[in-house]
Amino acid sequence: MVIDLKKIKYKELGFFRFKKLKDKYLLTNEEGRYQFLAAKEFTNFIEGKLDKKSKPYLSLVENNFVKKEFNAELAIRQHRSRHEYLFFGPTLHVMVVTLRCNHRCVYCHASAQTIEQKNADMSKETAAKALDVIFETTSPFVAIEFQGGEPLANWPLVRFIVKKARQKSKKTGKKLELRLVTNFSLMTEEKYQYLLKNKVSTCTSLDGPEAIHNQNRPLIDNGKKANGYERAVRWIERFQKDYAKMERKGFIWRVAGIITVSRPALAHPKEIVDEYVRLGFGNIFLRPLDPFGFSKKAWSQFGYDSDDFIAFYKKALDYIIEINLKGVKFEERFAKIFLMKILTDEDINMVDYRSPCGAGIGQMAYNYNGDVYTCDEGRMLSMMDDESFKLGNVHKNTYRELIDSPVIKTVCLASCLAGAAGCSDCAYQPYCGTCPIFNYVDQGNIFGQMATNERCKISKAILDYLFEKMSDDKIKAVFENWVKR
User: Fold this and answer.
1) Taking Cα atoms as reference points, which of 356, 353, 374 lies closest to residue 364?
2) Partner of 151 at 20 to 30 A CA spacing, among 50, 282, 367, 468?
3) 319 and 273 Cβ atoms separated by less than 8 Å
4) Which residues are 202's β-sheet partners?
5) In whole angstroms, what is the distance from residue 249 CA to residue 440 CA?
6) What gap in Å lies between CA 74 and CA 35, rounded to an integer?
7) Judging by beta carbons within 10 Å of its beta carbon (0-12, 13-18, 19+), is residue 46 exposed, middle or buried?
8) CB–CB of 238/225 below 8 Å?
């Protein structure tokens, strides 16, 4: 279809972006509302010829695509809700309590050190200083995430932080959530009971069935390879059982699972999903491999291009939809991030998929030595001898000095999509986000070059697929069920 620019009734149209999907046109506006129009309907709409009493026109009015019917109050309310995180300050605080780890993951983004490494643990003094900074945030909610390395390798400090954070939460009135990201291999009964008692949620990596998991994530125990899959699954099953009991008392959580899709996983989408369902997970986050840390060095063996991941993802999502249509609620979190923005006006708590992104303004990362970064990706980059995203150090800088860093301002600017080339006119701009650090590593520039950006290509492909799937009412009902609170 050829659009005659001279016939467009600009004064009658609200602002929108559009793209063609198969035989229809998808229109989106700043508030994230969307509308599909057939080719003839689209032509009639932009030329002012669409029947004002027709269902498509009334739907366009309802979703704020018609200028003279524009509901400014609704638009303001929706826009504010979708950018609610801008009014708070950093809520997620990643504390790297140690760089030491007993796994030698082939794609380790954190460039973890061996378990025997000296001087790689955070001290109590540094932890206390970090907590002072953390509770200066203007956010009424604080989430502290223990990471590493393997956090359980510095268990005494984890306990110290839990106690101090609880005290500071009570003193400041800030709501507190504690999260432990662990491989479970150093878990003991004493640690397990402590975590349950203190309501610390857990998250672990599970890359699928045993063979794939152990290939990706070799466990070294006393200098020898051990079965990391068996240890992880043993504690996953324990936590799932006891978290379910705690849920009845108001602690709503399950063990969160993280999968990093490496090349060996690409041929096994169904087996990976089945493994997560079998272990009682309610969802899976199919994340592509990032070029940070060890993964950059191992890319030739475990990496792949975006087309490979997209093909894998579509097969996995089709299977997940099939499971849901059979009555089992099981979500894919990558899709859910987009669906929350498409189907609701709520802010989604995922810093990579915001505009501007949450680096510095939604998240900060504290390395074992007190160095502070915009986010965990910035900290990962420091392990590759690049300190471009360092904000300062808890022993030298106040919260105000850190939050006023020009690094944060620059990252915010680089992740605002409204003026970014390749994003400003994209129909998916209201639903998307960019990671300046990924762009920096992959393309040498914090301002992503979207025409050749691998993350952009993956996001567009997933969004195309989601909108195509929503043409089926049964599948759309599945997606609507995923985003219900």
Assistant:
1) 374
2) 282
3) yes
4) 180
5) 45
6) 17
7) buried
8) no
Residue 255: closest CA among 276, 275, 281: 281
Q: Are 124 and 204 in contact (CB under 8 A)?
A: no
Q: Is the dihedral of CA 307, 310, 314, 316 positive or negative?
A: positive
Residue-wise over 441-471: b if at least 16 C-beta within 10 A, else e?
bbbeebebebeebbbbbbbbbbbbbbbebbe
Cα end-to-end span (Å), the chain: 41
User: One-letter amino acid identity for 162?
Assistant: V
Distance CA 352, CA 196 (A): 30
* Residue among 135, 97, 89 nearest 398 (CA): 135
Tracing tokens 């995203």 back to the chain, one arrives at: 389
Using alpha carbons, list the distances in angstroms from residue 450 to 51, 262, 292, 322, 426.
38, 23, 19, 33, 11
Token representation of residue 187: 């878990």
Q: How far lies 476's CA from each of 28, 310, 325, 328, 483, in Å? A: 18, 21, 11, 15, 11
Q: How far apart are CA 218 and CA 262, in angstroms?
A: 14
Print pLDDT tens along the chain (485 aa): 778 888 999 999 999 999 999 999 999 999 999 999 999 999 999 999 999 999 999 999 999 999 999 999 999 999 999 888 888 899 999 999 999 999 988 887 667 788 888 899 999 999 999 999 999 999 999 999 999 999 999 999 999 999 999 999 999 999 999 999 999 999 999 999 999 999 999 999 999 999 999 999 999 888 888 899 999 999 999 999 888 787 777 766 778 898 989 898 999 999 999 999 999 999 999 988 887 766 666 677 778 899 999 999 999 999 999 999 999 999 999 999 999 999 999 877 677 788 899 999 999 999 999 999 999 999 999 988 999 999 999 999 999 999 999 999 999 999 999 888 899 999 999 999 999 999 999 899 999 999 999 999 999 999 999 999 999 999 999 999 999 87
Q: Are 133 and 394 in contact (CB under 8 A)?
A: yes
Q: What share of the chain is helix, strand, coil (3-state, %, to 5)?
A: 45, 15, 35
111 phi and psi angles, rounded to 5 deg: 50, 50
Whether omega for the bond prior to residue 392 falls within 30 degrees of 0, making it cis, is no
- pTM attached to this predicted model: 0.93
Residue 328 tokens, joined = 């089992």
